[in-house]
Amino acid sequence: MSRRAVIQSIGHALPTKVLTNTDLEKLIDTSDEWIVQRTGIRERRVCEGPIEGTGWLALNASREAVDRSGIDPMDIGLVLCGTVSGDYIWPSTACMVQDQIGAKHAGAFDVSAACAGFIYALSNAAAMVTSGQIDHALVIGVDCLSKQVNWEDRSTAILFGDGAGAVMLSAMEDTDRGLLGTVLLSDGSGGKFICIDVGGSRYPWGSEQAIGKREKITMMGNEVYRFAVQSMGDACCKVLDRVGMTPDEIDLFVPHQANIRIIESSAKRLGLPPEKVFLNVHKYGNTSAGSIPLGLYEAEAEGKLKKGMTVLTVGFGAGLVWGANVIRW
Ligand code: ACO
After folding, report:
1. CA 119 / ligand 1 centre spacing (Å)
2. Atom 11 of ligand 1 has which residue's CA nearest to it?
3. pLDDT at 123
4. Identical fold at 4-175 and 179-328?
5. How far is ligand 1, taken at its centre, from the CA of residue 229, in Å?
6. Fewest 10 Å CB contacts: which of 117, 229, 259, 278?
7. Rg over CA atoms, the chain
8. Would you call the peptide bond into 296 cis, given omega within 30 degrees of 0 as the criterion?
């Protein structure tokens, strides 16, 4: 009998504050027309005040996933959180969630894979479930990059929003559902293309070394764009090859929502028609690790993703990292 890691339930969380392109026109030298044309983004959600942030989003998404799964938090063996914007450098966001939901028997840690955080976290949690090490894992993808953005930098301020998604992943026998295949890839030589200098041990906050270094997100947009187009297609082809499927066997494509042009170019390379490509980048912008689980959540809520369907997810991000998962829902 083969043991599979199956997504039992999904939850999500978004801040209520909407920041439109028109709002951004008042802050920086940009226009709604430019942003829509170059990225497809019309608005994004941003956290407000001292309470809203990564931990708050992660907890709300997790509570929804746990409630909808019907699983007792005491039976969860792992809380795994993909994020690069935790409330603190440490302790981890996963530990905070573990405590707040009462998962008293769970291990908990964060995965740092930027916008591919959920892809990486799901892949690792599924390996622990299928190996028999644990029966249930709560897997979260969350980021609050609005707090890491330089709101005076028009090349990045237009791109990001805040959000989270979480899934309950459980062991099942005799099923064709579950994570069918995964591919995780990286190229650290591209780390300089999107990064934050200050805050780690190289340039600690308030230190002499940090003077003149970048405290907020800096990005070489064209380099990241080129990498994204190449890596998304690359990861999709590799994971399909691994599971022995062709693109026409995919029912729904839920890619990382960074830029509509990047998504369209990956869909074109795979030969996927628009009705199989899930999009919400226009509403939320790039929510980093929150993007893919938020997409899965909305696709299910809109009836586009149903039990038994085969979904291809793919992401890329700072690191550089990229990866893809094929899931039978
Ligand atoms: N509004 C108006 N004009 C702008 C803006 C703006 N917000 N930003 C840049 N411009 C200008 C530039 O100054 C430039 O002007 P110039 O020709 O006079 O020099 C012109 O527009 C073109 O700029 P480009 O940077 O070449 O624009 P491009 O078409 O590449 O689009 C973008 C920029 C949208 C950032 C694109 O490069 C992109 O999407 N890159 C990928 C970014 C991404 O996905 N990052 C997330 C990584 S994932 C993670 O881990 C967080």
Report:
1. 25
2. 155
3. 98
4. yes
5. 14
6. 229
7. 19
8. no
